[in-house]
Each structure stands twice: as structure tokens, then as C-alpha cells.
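Field: COMPLEX_INPUT
Field: COMPONENT_COUNT = two
Field: RESIDUE_TOTAL = 565
Field: MODE = joint
Values follow.
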Amino acid sequence: MLEIVEGSHAVAEAVKLCRPQVVSAYPITPQTHIVEALADMVANCQLDADYITVENELSALSACIGASAAGSRVYSATTSQGLALMFEVCFNAAGMRLPIVMTIANRALGAPLSIWNDQQDSISLRDSGWLQFYAEDNQEATDLHFIAYKVCEDHSVLLPAMVCFDGFILSHVYEPVDMLSQEDVDRYLPPFNPYQRLDAADPISFGMYATPDYYHEFRYEIDNAAKRAKEVIQKAGKEFGTMFGRDYSALVEGYRLDDAETAIVAMGSICGTIKDAIDEMRAEGRKVGLLKIRVFRPFPSEEIAQALSNVKRVAVLDKDISLGAKGAVAIEVRDALYGSVTPVKGYVLGLGGRDVRKKDIKEIVSLVEKGVGDQFFGLRRELL
Amino acid sequence: MRELRIHGRGGQGSVTAAELIAVAAFEGGVFAQAFPAFGVERRGAPVQAFVRFDDKKIRKRSQVYEPDYIIVQDSTLIKDVNVFLGVKKGGIVIVNTEKVPDYTVPEGVKLITIDATSIALNVLGLPITNTSLMGAFAAATGEIKFAALEHALNHRFPKELAAKNIEAARQAFNTVKGAAA
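Field: COMPLEX_OUTPUT
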């Protein structure tokens, strides 16, 4: 049933429906409403979980790692500096093959301090072994949690996942969301069945050291698991579609792309504004389409190359920057198109909460048509 | 799509008003989206909140630059902030004031003034004007039905507080309806 709710509350409700047994998180803007809501649910006995309060994010994820290794379904949420503080243990969670699901309410990283949205935080953890999903709206943000647990806990994957949704832009917006019932979610997501777990009766160790004779192969196995996740996501997304009518089997999703000459590639909430801009450009006879990347890790190279095989030019929008290089999405899309003669231009925009409007999207389309790109878009020149 | 921009000061409940208007509009069968102009909220500082209404799913995420409707919770903002910026022709501006306006709204825009502060002080005992202005908005624009607003307030606040806020909204609703008749 469609209800109008705040994005953070929709996510908290979705997490509750996933029946996590342990939640550990540290509040940070703009993630706060999610963990407040979950703490309330635990306190009010609406969610049968241990809520472990901790002194910071490093401890939050460490607690999740311990609980997951002990065989519990666990959840955390953070953003920005909080995620940066988790950096070390993010790699441990993936290396120990623990299917933790964590929401990222995407926010810029300091300095200078910014509480506003961009995607620098999760993008900076792209090499950590976590699967990364990016939501366009709060319907996707909620649904992706069910899918994330299903995929992560699959014994052919066993990796953690970040469900990323844009801070404030989605976390603080009230909009209609179709929330599943507990019965629905229970049918889709069975209880966690750990592949292995800490057990005093049958002791094993997680996260031991590996000498040069072994480490290399561990990394290879994690990479393989991340790549195997592609098929598992497709299957889990399709099953979700069959059961509830919203199909998430595609890792990338085209919008008016079939006959497009110019393709925009983007991730997250900006895709909605882009779709509106595309409709207006189409009405003026401009052949523009969108390729939305919903899953950034594993990176859907083949799917992107396939989807963009007929366009004349590509504009990639990044709400992040690999400083000294380019936007991360642009780099990887260009890699996916290696060997093709299609020009790919990158545009870094919307950093630290700078608003992105339909007219900005139209301007970028005009720029890429002229072959101008690989730039920061929308700079206030008077400040430089 | 129709868009509303609310101007207020931190503590006046602009964000809550936007949320409740969206809830009431959704109950009336349209798609609605409400969000604040994200900032570090400080009491007394100028704040904005936005609502969109449409017959289909709303995808746009940028802030509201060309509103159909504007609510100004505090008329002292008018000298500091260009609250009427971008308002569409045929649009409606609702200003909370007890004074005769010494400012003009853009041509083709309807200005409605209402003394929401007095209503709030009389009914709630506090100068929290958001719920009164929601009543005025319902009467002036027809975007939300009063019954839906009542329902949204009942859902949001404890019974007694909800009843007072509904009364404040009703008085403002009737004042605007009365002025129009």
C-alpha cells in the first residue's frame, strides 16, 4: 500500500521487516532519523533485535562484524565522516565474508565540513569489497534493502553491501512509498543461514593473518565473489519483481535510450531530475536518453557497453571526484567502453549539496554535443 | 505540477507544515513530495521548505525556483529575503501579517494576508503559525481538503494538541474563505 513517509522512516521500516538480530550504529547527519527510528522500534518491542550503542562508527561496524561472525543478521547505517572512520573495518567485513547490510545516506566529506549531499563517501569505499547499490527514489531505497540481504547472504556471494541513498535529498523527503508487509518480506527473505559462524563447540577463526603464500588468493576469491554477485542480483531482483511487481534484475536501467544519440549516465536521486529534463528535450526533438547505474559494485561493464553501443556520445555525471584524476563513474564508464570510438565526457557536479536543476542537465547535453567536457560543471567563477 | 515554497524562521514549523500539507494532499489522491531547504537549522534564521503536487509520480529533486504558491510565515522576512522570487503568474502568495502590506507582489499574483499570529496566540497560546497557515493554504488554493488536513494533524499530534491546531487551522480557513466570499 502506498503511504507518504519520510525517506529515513521508510528505510527504517524496511530494515525492521528484514528482521535484523543486531543493529549497531552511531548517529550522524543526515542518517540520524534512520537509527533513531530503529532504536525506538527496539525499545518499543516492535523489533526483536539487540541495539548496541557505541562510542563511534568504528565501533559500530566492529560490533556488527562480531555479531555477523557469530551468525546474526546485522545492520548499520552511516554517512560521510562516519563511513570514513569505518574505513579500516569495512575492508575487514568484506575480507571475513560477512553479509552485513549498511545504509549510506550519502554526504560530502570534509574539509571543508559539509553536511550536504554528494556521493564522495561511498565512492571512496568502492575498492573495499562491499557491493554498492544506488537508489533513485525512496521506493528503490527501501526495496534495495530486501534485495541486498538476499544477495549478500547467498552462499555464492557472502559479502557486505552498502545501500546508498542521497542524504537529505532522499533521506529527508516525504513521498509515497509502497511498503511491503512482514508476510511479504518473510516470503522473499528467509532467515539468515550462515555458511560458517563462531561456535564455542566447534571453534574457528575469522580474519586471521595470511602470509604472502595465501593473501593473494584470498583477494582473488573476494573479487570472484563480487563478480558472482552480478548473477545473484539479477536473480534476486527478478524474483522481487515477480513477487511484488517491481523488477530490479537490471544492474543498469535505460530511460528513452533505445533511439538516443546522446546518453547521460548517472547514479542516485539525480536520475529523477534527468528524466524530467529528458522528457522536455525529447519534446523539442533532441534525442537524449539516460542510463542509470543502480549497482556500482560489482561494476556492470558489459551491461554498460551493451546499453551504450548505439549512442553517438556519452555524458557521465559524477557527484564525486577522484582528486587529481576524474569522477569515478566517468573513469569506469570509459573503461567499459574501451575500444569503442564513442566519445565519453565526464562532468563533476552537485558537490557538497549544490543543487542540480533541469536546466543544468540541458546545458550538459549541449556541452557534450559540442565535445566539451571532463570538467567541473557549474563552477561559480567569481569565487575562484 | 504545482509547487509551493514556504518561507519562515527556524522554530516556526515550516518543515512540519510542508510535510503535513504533502500528507493531506496525498490523502486527497495526488502525488506529493515535501522537503526542507537543507541547512543547519537555527532558531530564528530564515528557512525554506517545499511541496510539489502532481497527478503522476514526482521525479524532480531540485529545489523550488518558480512556485505556484508561496507561504510567508513571518512578514519581517520580506525586507531581508526576496520571498516572492520566481513566483508564477496566476500564483498565490499567503503572508502572515496583521498589517496593511507596504510591499507589492509581482504582477498577476494574488496576495492574501492573514493574521495567523493572533489566531495562533488565541487558540494555541503560542505564536506557532504553521497550522493556521495550512488552513489558509487549503482555503486559498484548494490543493488540500480541510478534512484531509484535519486527518494529517490528528495523525501527527497527540489528541489535545491536534484539536487545538485543527481549531487554529479552521479559523484561518474560514477567514480566508470569508474574505473570498
